[in-house]
Amino acid sequence: MITELGHFALILAFVVAIVQTIVPLVGAHKRRASWMAVAEPAANAQFLLTAAAFGALTYAFVTSDFSLRLVVLNSHSAKPMLYKISGTWGNHEGSMLLWVLIVSLFGAMAAWFGKGLPPTLRARVLSVQAAIGVAFFAFILFTSNPFLRMDVPPFDGQDLNPLLQDPGLAFHPPFLYLGYVGLSMAFSFAVAALIEGRVDAAWGRWVRPWTLAAWVFLTIGIALGSWWAYYELGWGGFWFWDPVENASFMPWLLAAALLHSAIVVEKREALKSWTILLAILAFGFSLIGTFIVRSGLLTSVHAFANDPERGVFILMILGFFTGGALTLFALRAQAMEAKGVFGMVSRESMLVVNNILLAVSCFVVFVGTLWPVVAEMFFDRKLSVGPPFFNMAFTPFMVVLGLVLPIGAMVPWKRGALSRAIRPLRGVFILAVAVAALVWAMQTGRSALGPVGVFLGVWMVAGALVDLWSRTGSSGASRLFRLPRADWGKTVAHSGLGITIFAIAGLTAWEREDIRVAQIGVPFTVAGFELELQGVERVRGPNYFSTMGEVSLRRNGRELAHLYPEKRDYPVARMPTTEAAIDYRFLRDIYVVIGDQQNNGGWTVRTYIKPFANWIWAGCILMSIGGLLSLSDRRFRVAAGARRTAARAVPAE
Prior knowledge:
This protein is α+β, with helices and mostly antiparallel strands. Helix content is 63%, strand content 11%.
């Protein structure tokens, strides 16, 4: 009964979304206040109905209702409760229901917090957001219904993909979707502004909090996915340039560009056309990511579906919204006239450079991701584009971005002198060069990647701190903690990026790897650490069997840790997984993986020494905290207060 109610609520939400798309949009065009007023209750109703549908599906997974086809395919009665719940979105149909839930949530939030928007703009934003919901409600109901029943319910289910039975992957999709779908709000604001034919400083201030929230969620989601790949897949890597990884990374790059571009619109009423275009493209790349993950076009270790028919439906959604928005953009380009002028050396110019680097980086990732498909379709050649291409083509843009970022933060608006902006950073530059030179001298015979990463990390972190201090003026430390939260947020986020860049470079340059057949009780040495396989036993888990090794870790005769790497076998899913054992420390990780038993009685053991691995995710956490600090700044929560009082009231019908 609950399942049927959930299905019915989903259908009702679809109907409400259609009404919300049409009535307020027509009302805004005809200036009918009563029609525009439909948008707010419709947005609330759509969210509540979708939440009811999602709650019904979650209840079916929690109670192991095997009369539901989706539960049979993605759950099992012996599975831990956390993975029963995460099984709700650990599949194609359930994840799409989560997608529309978040679409409706953001629409409802726009209704709750958008009281200060001009009535016509607010109605149009909610209508465009509802139109996105209509498309995905139709996709779910007609191609991916999560509420289908089984003719003959089985005794038990087929279990969730074992790779997804992990805490990191339990929370990774919700955060990622909050980021993906959060960009739909920037898209809705952009399309609504194009319909109205007006983009001004107030619009820039309204769109920034939504973009910032989406960027923060994307950062957390990507970091969780990277952390999961690091410890779960058993390869010891944190990023593999997998198509699904790239699908989330491309919108992240464009969202970062959009954030910085919207600053120029708000402060100087410049770059209007470019900002609107970025808002369209950022959400467009979110849809491209959805298409990649669900169409079967590209294979991935964590793609959701392999169904060309569903892929065509998503491609139609992508074409309609992105193509339609770009067409509207072309028709309304003349209305995006910039008012602010600025010199070659100015904060605006530096933000333009920032945008170009981020946009071109996104294009490089896009080409590398889709080029194998293009080559096969048009040239009948099977190609593989892997990490070497991305590392060579993508890294230079990030290096230049790291070099420019501290300088750009110091340059004044409108026009300035480069020498004056660089003067406070001279000490930072000398410090960064000195530390990099020291590292170069200490790591004789190795690549320059490590010292370059050290230089960029010190340059970006120290540069961000100098920029923050410069904002205190003559007051010094007494004013430091009275600075706006957005200033602190920028410093923390830029520092986090610097730390992440340093950690990636350091890990890549200084990682050590050892693969051997280890005999039980026979110690072996890797990079100064002594390891000993002390035993291997068979262990039973809640829904799996495990071959677990015990490895002691020592250095200079002192015992540091006991590690327990595993090879798990899930009998229901008939799939093995590798569970790495990791000794986490501040400056390095010791990463141990156990393989198969060999004919001589030994066991294959892989050992990695990974310096600064945890700093990668620490940098991501700092970037997210920086975004949240900026988001908490009152100036970004109150959208253009001066404009609010000046907005003209729309006459009643």
